[in-house]
Amino acid sequence: MTSNQLNKVSKFLSLVLRHKPDAIGLELDQYGWANINELISKAYTSNGLSNLSFDLIQQVVETNEKNDS
Predict the structure, then answer these.
(1) Do residues 51 and 65 make contact, with C-beta atoms less than 8 angstroms apart?
(2) CA–CA distances in Å: residue 46 to residues 2, 9, 43, 65
(3) Distance, CA of 24 to CA of 17 (rounded, Å)
(4) Contact (CB, 8 A) for 46 and 25
(5) What is the sign, positive or negative, of the torsion defined by CA atoms of 42, 47, 50, 53?
(6) CA–CA separation, 55 vs 32, rounded Å?
(7) pLDDT in tens, 38-61
């Protein structure tokens, strides 16, 4: 996956997880966490983001410049 594609997925995840989970029908728990399987499923059904997977999310996190690790 190109860095441009990773950036697009990163921006989508930031929007959905930080600002608009309701945009894909995702509900965060009382602590602001989401179920990853629900996130993947709803991203596909709401936005047709068929390539979103656990491995892709992990790759986005690992390559993000804002990663604190």
Answers:
(1) no
(2) 23, 14, 5, 27
(3) 10
(4) yes
(5) negative
(6) 21
(7) 999 999 887 767 788 999 999 999
